[in-house]
Amino acid sequence: MAPKSAHVVFVFLSLVAVAVPILAASRGPLIGGWQPIENANDNKEVVDVAKLAVEEYNKEKNRSLVFVSVVKGDSQVVAGTKYRLIISAKDAKATTAPSNYRAVVWSKLDKSIQLISFEKEITTA
Fold it and tell me: What's the rounded Cα separation, in Å, for the pair 123 and 36?
């Protein structure tokens, strides 16, 4: 038969194993994790970041996209704010409908903005 102290340790560890996930879930979202942006297209800061992303992409790729709207987005706090956005934009030189683009933009603490990625979203039918 195992000593009584082994039973106490087992019960304690069992309680910790159950309590830790419950407490972590009740504290809200993970710090530093991606958080959805509610009503992203109504958020002036998010729209301004999205417009800057389109402008920077146009400069880098010699394109003529025109910002239409922010479809949705997520943000992450990392020495500033990193945005992961779906942006609707259209080619100013074409008569086609707008397309969606996935952009990742870092708004740094020094107020500078860095475009990390900008790609056309591939749609599957």
Answer: 22
Beta bridge partners of 35: 75
HEC readout, the chain: CCCHHHHHHHHHHHHHHHHHHHHHHHCCCCCCCCEECCCHHHCHHHHHHHHHHHHHHHHHHCCCEEEEEEEEEEEEECCEEEEEEEEEEEECCCCCCCEEEEEEEEEECCCCEEEEEEEECCCCC
Q: What is the pLDDT of residues 47-91, one digit of tens each?
A: 999 999 999 999 999 999 999 999 999 999 999 999 999 999 999
**With contact defined as beta carbons under 8 Å apart, do 118 and 53 qualify?**
yes
